Predict the structure.
Amino acid sequence: MLTLTADDIRLGCRAANWREALALAGEELEAAGRTTPEYLQGLLDREAQSSTVLGNGIAIPHGTPESREHVRSTGIRVLQFPDGVTWHDDARVHVLVTIAAQSDEHLDILRHLTRVLDKPGLAQQLAEATDRDTLLACLSRTPATPKCDRDTLLLKVPASDTRELALTAAARLQSLGCVEPPFIASLVAQSPQAVGRGLWLVHATDGVTQPALAVATPAKADSALDGVLCLAGQGEDTQPLLEQIDHLLTQPESIARLSADELLARLAGEQANAVTRQVRLLNAHGLHARPAKQLVQVARQQSLPLQLRLLEGDAQAVSATSLTRVIGLGARRGQTLVISAAGEGAQAAVDALAQAIESGLGEAVTPLRAHDERKATDTPTQPVEPLETDTPIKAVAASPGLAVAPAFVMRLPELTYAATANDPDNQCERLNRAIDEAFGQLEALIRQAEGGEAGPILAVHAEMLRDDDLHQAAFDIIREGASAEAGWWQAIDTAAKAQEALADRLLAERAADLRDVGRRVLANLCGVAMPTPPDEAYILVADDLGPSDVARLDTQRVRGLVTAKGGATAHSAILARALGLPAVVGVGERLLTLDSGTDVVVDGERGCIVPAPGAERRRRLNQRLEQLEQLQARAHEARHEPASTVDGHQVEVCANLGNTAHTPEAVERGADGVGLLRTEFIFMAHSEAPDLATQRAEYAKAFDALDGLPLVARTLDVGGDKPLDYWPLPEEDNPFLGLRGIRLSLTRPEILETQLRALLTEAGSRPLRIMFPMVKDLAEFRAAKALVDRLREEIDAPDVQVGVMIEIPSSALLAPTLAPEVDFFSIGTNDLTQYTLAIDRGHPQLSAESDGLHPAVLRLIQMTVQAAHEHGRWVGICGELGSDPQAIPVLLGLGVDEFSVTSRRVPLVKACIRNLALSDAKSLAQLALQQATASDVRDKLEGA
Ligand code: PEP
Ligand code: MG
């Protein structure tokens, strides 16, 4: 999100006229590296369309959409003109908030500014500010945004007394993060107060993180109990919530009978007899200043006052004649505005405004399509060349193995539909039919999937379709003028968002199921068939797959995975490896030109696919499959043998685990130990931080099964892409570069201490290797190691080594300074690659390039090993690169002493090492180090 900081501000500017001021602003943006000089013309063109003055001494110059190509990076420059500048609309301006934005990020700034525009004396304060912080403070009174929306309504709760309803409402506010336990404690101690008309109020100020109002209505209402209002917060920020309460108290209906939409309307002050109309905003960049101005002008031409609110928003209506308030809604393309008015002529006035909005408020607009929001951020699609048949297509090897089967291309159909309709009965009928149809489809799929893993998931989908509340929510929206499609999708989206907001991660993940099932009904409404996986073995082909998609795969039938996007270290790839499915990712968008039913070879060993293989290729493929099977059988046979090269160099091959219960399986597969226990999974499996006894029991499972083999346990590694529900972290712009790994653990040393105590106590005399994640330098290592040293004074654990993970380039570069003090290094190539190449490991487009065989990463590994060996320390590899068949000889040649890989891969990695000679591996490593790019490395290795 675009935010204003003191560094963006320049004080004391002077300009003879508005053009000069604008030129200065353009120069500032350019000097800050935000724009090219051509952007100034965009600023001028925009002013020629209409003034960007917001009022109260502030103007917000920004370029036209056409000038966005001159924006290098989104940013703002604020220029203060103490003497003021007369703008071309005669307004006096003291501050220019000049925006260079590539999309509609500036709406956030705009929305933010509108909150301060009403401040009395603002223009003078802006003119007189003598330091940047004061000016910033003038511009950014950031009131805590009060929350009262669909999420805070709890309708028809099966509770019959006011306390129960109050606590249910409070629990919802807690799950939404608006309040913390002291708030609940305060409510428990008080009795709800009757405020009239069967409504009751509870109010507390302790433990409030965001002012909020929840409304709970009972399933069985009567005149004594119509609903409970639960208010959190105090002072100015709760003012809008108090107004909403007032609206409820002054309207005549029983709120327990109202639908969510009706209740939101009453909270917004709309009376039951008001004329309302919903209209979708189609403007590409939302309700920014120019269309907002038009809207206000149309509203002013009407004979009676019009109110406006966002259907998806916080139930606060604003006057449609107030420019700042209309902009303050922050409405974006695709959101629904609700217009309302009461009195004679209301219908005509509402219609006039609706029409103006529908026709774009002076801008050219295009209709919405299903999932338009997602489409809006996609780059325009170019015609793509189809894939050549019987030709290998190189991509990224994400999970080893070889398979051939017909493709099932998961292409989500494009669904187009009208947003509104004026025949609600017919629309409800259509929706009922589409739901019945979906039900029948799911039942057929459940029968087909019998015995497989997809069956239970489909059964959950069918159950979701039976949800009366969901149907009711959709019907309510339809009755307000939406089409069956729009009503249904809005009900699904709202329910999914509420689900996503739940603290329980597993429940939150159900939101994806809800959207899946919603899409099926939507497709039926649009008369489009949903892609249905075949009944027999297939290769799943998709644009991208999230970890939850992979976890939900029907492994009985899926033989392999191929995606257009994605990279080898994305968590979905790690999951594919854990499931033992060959996977190739990052093929590019041409992949989706493939037709379902076409045979595809997935070669997870070489990282390529072959569409429609010819007869000769099939013959060779069958040969390789046979060889692979034999190799696997031989590898399995020899799994307990050591991994020694033909010239007698021995390394260890251990298993990566996230669950200690899988240790016996790893040992059975021939692992020489556990080389990486991702202990965060143990923490994630509990709803609160596991205590000493719980952790000891977990670690005991590993030590017992290892029976004397070493356990390398990584201390808690959360933050970044690994959230922990009960350890909420402040929102960060770059969580991958923020509080994570050991940095985070050191902020709560008591948690780290309990973990270390559990590990050391449980180890006793058994071999324990402790390593700290994401260590950037010696200072962090020392801070963490001090805890271990202190505990070892009281706990007798003689066979303990303490090391660090090398996954930040700084720690590889500084390995010579770390090596004297650590016992070992373990290289986390997933993160090391991410941070070296500056490519997010889960990035949908870029992570395909995030290849650990990049020579830059290899050089860091070389430096690490050299430093370690000079001090007699050992080095392991625990990232995914360790199980890449092309990388194994290189890593061996670089001197790596231990490979820790997915437990399934242990026998094969051992077998691969047994086939190598250390001397050859060293030459390959040298060859790889001399290359310039990752693909050069792979090409050379292939040819060697
Ligand atoms: C790594 O970064 O390589 C690693 C092993 O840690 P994780 O994948 O758990 O981040
Ligand atoms: Mg890591």
Summary: The mean pLDDT is 86.
